[in-house]
Amino acid sequence: MASKTERRREEIVARAAAMGLANVDDLAARFDVTASTIRRDLALLSRSGRLARTYGGAIAPSDRAETSLLQREREGFDAKSAIARWAAAQVQAKESILLDAGSTVALLARQLPTLDAVTVTTASVPVISLLRSRPDLNLVSLGGRLRELSDAFVGPLTEQNLERLTFDRLFLGTDGVSTDGAICEAELDQTRLKELMARQSRHVYVLAHSAKLGRAPFHSWARIEQPWTLVTDDGADPDFLKAFRSDEREVVLTSAVDAAQQ
């Protein structure tokens, strides 16, 4: 028969797989143990590979290999289109916006409305290709080291250029979102860049279709320190959304069904 400690750790893993773990104190209260005991549980489960640690808690890892941008474009297309359509509608005339890399952000670029004197800055090669012929936009490329899988620039040169600019709105892509507000990427260069992008921006939106919520495909995490908005689709798990929402984080739900019918 499993011991009380083993049963507690199994339940921790199950909860991480369902919705992520955001708060050590909440877990301590749930199991009627000390916070130090929970931290030891999380450390052991992390060392054994059963959990991936995030900034504020833990999440269930996966062994999924990173796919190319072209492969990702086919995943959840209707959900991504709905998210992109909502995001594009937020952009106003004369704003300066920053577009991250990723398939959903590329769909947003396709749907940007014709507006007066909008400046678009990006490190994404597909976004540059989509917008290069738009006479109504001012297009700025951040440059840097080209990361082939994401088809985007990263690294010190990208960061140096970014530090010279500020933005009205930032639209970020991600590979995973945890309930504690951390966002997952394949490499540390990507997480560092996203954090810097957020610091330079007044309004921050993370575009993530519902299959990415509560997922940890990789082990690199970014933390957005200021208030931000998660834009996802109505297939999102209600338990995840309940745990995710906070004074610092809002949620917008879009309809993938509506996108498919358009």
Automatic annotation (TrEMBL):
One of its GO terms (molecular function) is DNA binding. Keywords: DNA-binding, Transcription, Transcription regulation. It comes from the Bacteria. Transmembrane segments: none annotated. Residues 5-60 form the HTH deoR-type domain. Pfam families: DeoRC, HTH_DeoR. This is DNA-binding transcriptional regulator of sugar metabolism, DeoR/GlpR family. The lineage of its organism: Bacteria, Bacillati, Actinomycetota, Actinomycetes, Micrococcales.
